[in-house]
Write a structure and sequence with these properties.
This protein has a domain of 47 residues. Helix content is 68%, strand content 0%. It has three helices and no strands. Helix 1 runs parallel beside helix 3 and helix 2 runs antiparallel to helix 3. It starts with 14 loop residues before the first helix and ends in a 6-residue tail after the last helix.
Length: 81
């Protein structure tokens, strides 16, 4: 039997973007080596900082979501699980 997936794309805007990245960090914290978690955290912070700056020019409504994600990445602690 064929499996059909509907709505594969996630609408990662607003608060859902931050929660998605937080869930990825939680997974890495629990199941991956700590150096991978630190690398992922750095990648989340830098990529959303860059996208936030780009969004200032092209899509001002997305700036807040990227900034919230950067703040979450900066303040993330292992106890956030």
């Amino acid at each position: 039997a064929r499996i059909i997936h509907h709505n594969e794309a996630q609408d990662l805007t607003g608060w859902k973007l931050t929660e998605h990245r937080k869930s990825i960090l939680a997974y890495f914290t629990k199941y991956r080596p700590s150096w991978e978690t630190r690398a992922l955290r750095f990648a989340i912070i830098t990529s959303h900082l860059v996208w936030g700056l780009i969004s200032l020019i092209f899509n001002r409504s997305a700036v807040d979501a990227h900034w919230q994600t950067v703040k979450m990445g900066i303040t993330w602690r292992r106890t956030n699980l």
